[in-house]
Amino acid sequence: MAISHYARVVRGTAIIWGHPGASGVTHDLSLDALANGSAQQGEYADLGENAPAYCEVYVVAETGTAPTAGLTVDVYLVCSHNGSDWPAKVTGADASYTLGTSDANLKQAGNPAACLIATNDGNTVLRQSPTIWVPRGRYVAPIYDNNLGQALRNETTDTDNGSRIILIPIYQAIEPA
Amino acid sequence: MPDLDVIADLITAAPGLVSLAEQGNDDAIAVQLNTPAVEVYRRMPKALCMRWLADTDALKKLSEAVALGGDVARISRAALLLLQSDVSQITLDSEFLRDFDLLVATGVLSASDKSAFLSKARESISLAEHRIGRAVTVSDIGEALSRFRPQGRIAKIPQ
Question: Which candidate from B23, B28, B146 shows the least CB-CB separation from A37?
Answer without folding.
Answer: B146
